[in-house]
Design goal:
The chain is an alpha+beta fold. About 45% of the residues lie in helices and about 20% in strands. The protein folds into two domains: about 170 residues, Jelly Rolls; about 110 residues, Homeodomain-like (Arc Repressor Mutant, subunit A), CATH 1.10.10. It contains ten helices and eleven strands. α7 crosses α10. The longest helix is centred in the C-terminal third of the chain and has 20 residues. The chain is globular. It starts with 18 loop residues before the first strand and ends with a helix. InterPro entries: Cupin_2, Homeodomain-like_sf, HTH-like, HTH_AraC, HTH_AraC-typ_CS, RmlC-like_jellyroll, Tscrpt_reg_AraC-type_HTH.
Length: about 300
Amino acid sequence: MERERLREDRIHGNAMYPVSVYPDIQQLNGDSILDCHWHDEMEFTMVTEGCAVFQIDMNTVEVQAGEAIFINRGEIHAGYLKGDVPCVFSSIVFNPELLGSRTFDTVQEKFIGPLVRKTVIPPFHIKADEDWGQEILDHLKRIFADHAAGTETCEMSTKAYLYLVFARMFEHMRPAPLKGTVATGSHDKVERLKSVLGYIHKRYPEPLKLKELADEANMSEGHFCRFFKQMVQKTPVDYINYYRVQQACVQLENTDHKIVDIAMDVGFEHLSYFITTFKKHKATTPSQYRKMFYENVAMESALVQV
């Protein structure tokens, strides 16, 4: 499944059912299995095969097959392969409004409200070595199974399972640090990174200089480079090139534009450098990528018609 579907600008679900379930997402090329991004929804991701290292804001956690992570709304997250075994994972992304009520009640006041406002910190690594963790993992498996089977009641059961998940998680939540404490410094770093990523995502077709990115983060160039590499696991130049390649893939999949025109559209000044960079990130050339994409589309269409 294409990781691009988890971009932060994607609409998850709809107004009536603000939930999207992404089953069996497979690692593509390289060590990156989940690109650095964030969104306003909450998310549970369960690793089903292999092992991965996930970064959630300033926290890094190694997740084995059969374990899961929780990502609260607005938290920057990314995933990287750990070891040689390919990683497969499933995710559910949902708007916390799903857990709301028509009227403000005790559940909203005591549990959902603090979670949404982030006045409590839930556990972000869910393992089966304790009963509460195993119960949560079982509930998540049922959500994925119900959606895969297309059960008639999957919308209702998903909401019910999420309530049960948070009920068990709440027993292990802790109060968030007060503003002005040392621990809240990480929030400032995350917000600076969001600002820089937003700047790149908006201006990637233009020439981008290191100084303007450093200014956006209100840092010196040297400090910014170290900060960015620590947070994203890529240098600023590597990330810009990576993002441009991702945007090129969208055009390769959805237009018949010439390769050279796509290269220029996404910010590459030279075709040869674009092809070299594309091959570095996708392990194939742009032309081959387009060909393989349409072959896969044709194959999927044929299977549907059988």
